[in-house]
Amino acid sequence: MKKRLIVPLLLIIATIIIVYATIDNPHDFSMEECMLCHVNYEQDPKMLVSPVSDICKRCHEQINAATSHPVDIYPSNAVVPPDLPLRTGKIACSTCHDIHKESSNIFGEKTYFLRRPYTGRNFCISCHTQGLDTARHSDTLDTAHIGSRFRVTDPSEPLDSISKECISCHGGILGKTAEVELGSGVWTHDDPNHSHPIGVDYEESRTERPDAKLKSVSAIDGRIKFFDGKVGCGSCHDVYAGSQMSLVMSNKGSRLCFACHEL
Question: Fewer beta carbons within 10 angstroms: which end of the chain, N or C?
Answer without folding.
Answer: N
